Amino acid sequence: MLLPYYQEEQIEAGCDEAGRGCLAGPVFAAAVILPRDFYHEILTDSKQLKADERAELRVFIEKNAIAWAVAEVDHEEIDRINILNASFLAMHKALDLLTLRPEYILVDGNRFKSYRDLPHSCIVKGDGKFFSIAAASILAKTYRDDFMQAIALLHPEYDWCNNKGYPTIKHRNAVLQYGFSPYHRKTFRVTDPQLDLFRTVHVESDTI
């Protein structure tokens, strides 16, 4: 069961990102402030949920959160500053957009660049431990998926409607065949020494 908050004294915002490991598209991040008594029986890490469950949870979160915001950093900025810094920037932008200023920040993962003068804690696998981070993971994931679905109509050859920009075998092969689209991150490696092995065992992620 997820916990409602990390500490009791300060207004707490949970942050998470989506799309960090993709070959194409922006990285999205969300920041969410939830009421102390918030509860949902299936809310957890977005990767553990089905698409229809994430869609339902997004509506519930947006309706019941005290404040929430979603921001993105595009592929060109990712290439300029690298994906780690772009992830931090996306989270900072989401925090900027909150209608209520948080006093404490919970971040999924093990690293974060301090936001203004606010204290923060990094929680490894935090999206499976705290409701606010899980809620942020749902918003970041669903908003990014919507974006990738939209641009998939412009470039169907990359199968973004299914892979959402992640490096599946089909996506990698399409890049090798057609080259980069205007949305690809050019600093990311398309080929991989393990590609032949993955093709042999027919492993493609269906959790994306």
Automatic annotation (TrEMBL):
<dbReference type="Pfam" id="PF01351">
    <property type="entry name" value="RNase_HII"/>
</dbReference>
<feature type="binding site">
    <location>
        <position position="108"/>
    </location>
    <ligand>
        <name>a divalent metal cation</name>
    </ligand>
</feature>
<keyword id="KW-0963">Cytoplasm</keyword>
<feature type="binding site">
    <location>
        <position position="16"/>
    </location>
    <ligand>
        <name>a divalent metal cation</name>
    </ligand>
</feature>
<keyword id="KW-0540">Nuclease</keyword>
<comment type="similarity">
    <text>Belongs to the RNase HII family.</text>
</comment>
<dbReference type="InterPro" id="IPR022898">
    <property type="entry name" value="RNase_HII"/>
</dbReference>
<protein>
    <recommendedName>
        <fullName>Ribonuclease HII</fullName>
        <ecNumber>3.1.26.4</ecNumber>
    </recommendedName>
</protein>
<dbReference type="GO" id="GO:0004523">
    <property type="term" value="F:RNA-DNA hybrid ribonuclease activity"/>
</dbReference>
<dbReference type="GO" id="GO:0003723">
    <property type="term" value="F:RNA binding"/>
</dbReference>
<dbReference type="InterPro" id="IPR012337">
    <property type="entry name" value="RNaseH-like_sf"/>
</dbReference>
<keyword id="KW-0464">Manganese</keyword>
<dbReference type="InterPro" id="IPR001352">
    <property type="entry name" value="RNase_HII/HIII"/>
</dbReference>
<dbReference type="InterPro" id="IPR024567">
    <property type="entry name" value="RNase_HII/HIII_dom"/>
</dbReference>
<keyword id="KW-0378">Hydrolase</keyword>
<dbReference type="GO" id="GO:0006298">
    <property type="term" value="P:mismatch repair"/>
</dbReference>
<comment type="function">
    <text>Endonuclease that specifically degrades the RNA of RNA-DNA hybrids.</text>
</comment>
<keyword id="KW-0479">Metal-binding</keyword>
<dbReference type="InterPro" id="IPR036397">
    <property type="entry name" value="RNaseH_sf"/>
</dbReference>
<keyword id="KW-0255">Endonuclease</keyword>
<dbReference type="GO" id="GO:0005737">
    <property type="term" value="C:cytoplasm"/>
</dbReference>
<dbReference type="GO" id="GO:0032299">
    <property type="term" value="C:ribonuclease H2 complex"/>
</dbReference>
<dbReference type="GO" id="GO:0030145">
    <property type="term" value="F:manganese ion binding"/>
</dbReference>
<feature type="binding site">
    <location>
        <position position="17"/>
    </location>
    <ligand>
        <name>a divalent metal cation</name>
    </ligand>
</feature>
<dbReference type="GO" id="GO:0043137">
    <property type="term" value="P:DNA replication, removal of RNA primer"/>
</dbReference>
<feature type="domain" description="RNase H type-2">
    <location>
        <begin position="10"/>
        <end position="200"/>
    </location>
</feature>
